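so my prof wants the structure for this chain in the tokens format not the other one, which i didnt know existed until like an hour ago. anyway here's the sequence
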Amino acid sequence: MIARERMQMHGVEFEFMRDRAFVAGEWIDADDGKRFPIRNPADGSQLGTVPSLGRAETMRAIASASDAQKAWRHQTAK
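here's what i got, hopefully its the right format
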């Protein structure tokens, strides 16, 4: 797996592409370890890979989002 990080160059902050999924406040891989390639549409070259999440990971993400929404709905726009 390629390490991803933030860096500053000439006063500009860059965040590199993440290669994991953000679920329930954590960066995760697929439970079964499967991944699929991300390709550059201009030339077809592979830019990296990301987890191929299945039903279990999707259900955890939905449950986490539902829980977070209960508190978030009471927040104001400011």
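also thought this was worth mentioning. The chain has one helix and six strands.
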